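User: Hi! Is it possible to get a structure for several chains at once, not just one? Here's what I have:
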Amino acid sequence: MRQAELVLALIMGLVSASLMWKSAELPVGWIPDEGPGGGAFPFWLSAGMLACCVWILIRWVRNPTGVAADEGPYIAPEARSQIIVVTIALAVMIGLVHIIGVYGAVPLFLVFYLRGLGRHGWKLTTAFAVATPVVTFFFFEAALKITLPKGYTEPLFYPLYDWFM
Amino acid sequence: MNVPIRSAFAAAAATVLAVASTASITGAAQAAWEPLKPVDFVIMAGKGGGADKMARLMQTIVEKHDLSSKPLIPINKPGGSGAEALIHLKQKAGDDHTIMVTLNSFYTTPLRQPALDVDIMTFTPVARMAEDTFLLWVHADSDINTVDEFVEAARAAGNDWIMAGTGKGQEDELLTTFLNNAYDLDMKYVPFKGGGRVAKELAGKNANSTVNNPSEQLGFYEAGKTRPIAAFTPERLELFSDAPTFLELDQDFVYFMQRSVVGAPGMSAEAAAFYQDLFAKVFASDEWQTYRHDKSLYGDLIAGDELKAYWQRERAIHEVMLKEIGEI
Amino acid sequence: MEILTHLLEGFGIAFLPLNLGLAIFGCLLGLFIGAMPGLGSVNGVAILLPLTFLVPPTSAVIFLGAIYYGAMYGGAISSIMLGIPGASTAVATTFDGRPLARKGMADRALVAAATASFVGGTISIVLFTMFAPPLAAVALVFGAPEEFALMLLAFATFIGLGGDDIPKTFFSILIGLVLSAVGLDIVSGQPRLIFFDIPGFFHGINFLVLAIGIYGIGEILWTIETSHKGIEVSQARLSIPRFVDSLRSLAGTAKTMVMGSFLGYFVGILPAAGATPGSLMAYGVAKSISKDPDSFGKGNVDGVVAPESANNAASTGSMLPMLTLGIPGSPTTAILLGGMVIWGLEPGPMLFIEHTDFVWGLIASLYAANLFALILNLAFIPAFIAVLRLPFTILAPVIFILCLVGGYAPTQDMHDVWLMFLFGVVGYLLRKLDYPMAPAVLAIVLGPLAETSMRQSLLIGHGSPAIFFERPISGAIMVVAIVLLALPLIRLVRRAVRRSADA
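Assistant: Yes, the chains can be modeled jointly so their relative placement is included. Here is the combined structure:
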């Protein structure tokens, strides 16, 4: 915890500074007769973020309390591997949406999660992996007319569109 | 890597399609192109604005008369004064299922943000559905009835005269700059989000004047809250026949807001022909004609190369105007 | 009396079989749409538009009213059950609704939310019926300076909602405000903070992207970690005695409900404000007038009742500027406006005079929708509770998928899904170190309204802040806001002084 507090405050400080730099693309000063320039609002607020990070860092050095004094692990060790696996699985699923679309990525993710992580039986896994995309299609595409991304699987849906849209 | 996946799916899809089509389509259907999937109907402005209302009206007409086998799905992309929508369309080059409703930011945004690297002349022209008109409005409680009285009052107020408008470096500001230059005024332009909001600022006396479209001010006008004093049109509008045109007042100035539909660059000729035909039908529908009349819209239907020539002309005009106000 | 006649006629219209059927169906649909993170009443319009040529405009608007109310009720369900606010109006409901669900009292929270919504809806509809035209006049004079003053007041009422860690609370507010600045600077017309020139940033960062990221993905990651110690998401049960008990316990919150309803309604009628600031202010006020302010955020029923009564009251309120001024107070009313144009109705001051059947049919159907939404909502509570009893390894992936689809639906851009994922992971990491997340979510909603109105005002006032105090309405709100903002600071200083005196 104590190390994480330091590292995260440093990273957020860097983020604040780069936000300030990015905001400065537009005028950050006070334009006479008009008020603040276009970049002023994000610039000075980012400066405030930076100040908060500095405050957190000073406190970390001089008077650590709470998480800054906690020598325990940042993420509970017994959960660490699972958190990492889930995060990566999520990223892979979102990435796959670009290629095989929602209706390809979602069942794969469900199979991985329910079977691989949840250790549920194949019957339940298959039921969810099939039912979720079907319900999604009818609720979002047929009823609400929100088309979800399909990637390269798009042509497979042409006949479905003919029937339901 | 992508190509084999794509072709594998395409092959699979072709099989499915072949089965589906032999079942449902008879010989004659070969001729005309039809959309295979719902069509992305991009709107270059936010929800509730003039462009949005018009786009949703078009969509409704298409559905009501069953003009297209697949629905048009409206997607608002107002970001960056339309920059987001323009880039989206540019990235969809060659796509037969993406069309967009545009307004004058179609000309001004690429001119003001050359970094976007968008050339509007590459886009596929579909149809110009209308040209929206502009009038100069003041509050009905003011003593201003003519442009002369307006000029007198605005000149006396100098920089305290508030002209509310939509967006920066766009239609309303161009018109404000024109008035400032033509009558030697120093009105202050304050941008708001959306024409409805601008109209309300005038009705609530938080602004001194606006250059709204008729559709935006109509409600307040009918309630006796606001008054048009001049029109930026070639002839007087039927609905506001008391308001003279600026041409009558010896100012050589006419300005319109285009409402046209464009397709993604490099769209196939068959698809372009389908959309041109589709919007020609929308244009001819009773609903559209009624709307045109009720909201005092100008402009006939133009399509294809004629529309392209129109864009060319309008873009040149806007380039001059933007240079004049120092935006580019 | 004229109003009553109109209203009775309106009820006659609302209770025609077709309209009644549409109202019930709309409520049901709205309930499910609203309960889905990322979807709100706006999406109901997708169904409404094709319907408009099957049924007359009045029936169509009744359907929309039903979807609108159903979705407002449904928003609370997602906030309480999943901890993900489905819409910005339901953010404040998560503050206490979620802790209640975690404590196994999801049923109590759901009953409280439904009842409060009903009370809020009813009070606001009565207010709407009686005072619509005079209030429209107030909304009309509300300009940019007043809007800024109101935003400042909203900030002031929830300044005390953050965690105990001052620099981290400020950091959270500030990062929310900075993220809200992404996109377009409306005053100069320049694109702003377009990171790496990715076009997805042009439309700014949608509140939902941050909220679903933090409360959806971040929350599940958090639960995965803590559930290793054997905590289930929620173990609510429902029985008739518990239900009666829940209702009885609500008697004590009557004051909060009435307060929330009035506050929500009056904030809701102001153009551009809408239901979100109303619900936040109601929560802040409920906390400050409570005898037990420390229990807020840990599962106080008053903390559910206040925002829920306020957001429903405000949704009715926001119909007022739409109908009388033609200005949409929210995306939903914006689309309704578009629909009215299609039906050939001109929103604006004349609507109340020329189309009385439409206006009063709408109002009467809001009454009806409100009642149906309550009944349906209560009827479905057992089903919602049953969902919560699913094993977490089933619930978690389903919620992830809801997040994916919910993050995509509003803008239909995968860019936002990636951002949501990023916010979820970063939010989780920050939250572990006691960075409070709610202030960031609230700031991203109010930030754009506050900045734009401030700069428009300064433009009008030649760059002088005096404009906020010269105008009577804005001046009065500003003074209240500044006093509220100053109070915690004064308290802080006094505490510091006392501490140094002790030492």
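Residues 2-502 of chain C form one domain. The first helix of chain C runs from residue 2 to 14.

User: Great, thank you!
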